[in-house]
Amino acid sequence: MKKRFDSLTPELIAQRKSVHELCRQFSRSPSKGNLKRLKALFHSCGEEVFIEHGFHMDYGDNITIGDRVFINVNCTLIDGKGSDSNKADDKGLTNGKISIGNDCLIGPNVQLLAVSHDVEPQSRLEKHNYIDDIIIGNNVWLGGGVIILAGVIIGDNVVIGAGSVVTKNVDEQSFYAGNPAQKIRAL
């Protein structure tokens, strides 16, 4: 469920600035030490997770990554922060989380965007942010340039074709492609 949050508090600005700097350090030098510092920012990070350079996120502590995940170059995860952080879900995450299951392949230039804004022009002038979760199941392949919008749940064993924009939930065992992404066939 979409929830409003204020990203302009001094605490959140400071956290983003710190996380962005670590992401820049990792991009300049994707060493094991910088990768370890990057992974430490996540709410949880599984075993055998490989992240290529060019990785970007806003906060990190609302991101979970399963085991054996490969994240290719220039991946962007815009995670959010629930305004009532003491009301976490059963995984300890507040609304605005990004969860990536086990054995996923994330192609180059993929964007997972758990934050959105008002569509109505007058309301948009107030610069509100809205967050909703993105949940990606196990054994999912997101092709290059895929964009996943806030509130989307992707089932297990799914392939999303390169360049697709996913605006709605995706059935498990399926191949989706297009803008907006549509089911092409069952797998």
Brief summary:
With 187 residues, the protein is of the alpha/beta class. It contains 3 helices and 20 strands. It has one domain: 3 Solenoid (UDP N-Acetylglucosamine Acyltransferase, domain 1).
Give a description of the structure.
With 187 residues, this protein is α/β, with parallel strands linked by helices. The protein has a single domain (3-186), classed as UDP N-Acetylglucosamine Acyltransferase, domain 1 (3 Solenoid), CATH 2.160.10.10. The chain has helices at 10-28, 32-41, 121-124, and strands at residues 3-5, 44-45, 50-51, 56-57, 63-65, 70-71, 76-78, 98-100, 105-106, 111-113, 115-116, 129-131, 134-136, 141-142, 147-149, 153-154, 159-160, 165-166, 174-178, 181-186. α1 packs antiparallel against α2 (32-41). The chain is globular. It starts with a strand and ends with a strand.
Characterize the largest beta sheet: strand count, sense, and whether it forms a barrel.
7 strands, mixed
CATH superfamily: Hexapeptide repeat proteins
User: What characteristic shape results from the CA principal axes?
Assistant: globular
Query: Structural class of the secondary structure composition?
Result: alpha/beta
Radius of gyration: 16 Å
Question: Which range best describes the helical content: under 10%, 10-25%, 25-40%, 40-55%, 55-70% or over 70%?
Answer: 10-25%
Number of strands: 20
SSE sequence, one letter per element: EHHEEEEEEEEEEHEEEEEEEEE
Number of helices: 3
End-to-end C-alpha gap: 29 Å
The CATH architecture comes to 3 Solenoid
CATH class: Mainly Beta
Going across the biggest sheet, name each strand in turn: 3-6-9-14-17-19-20
Number of domains: 1
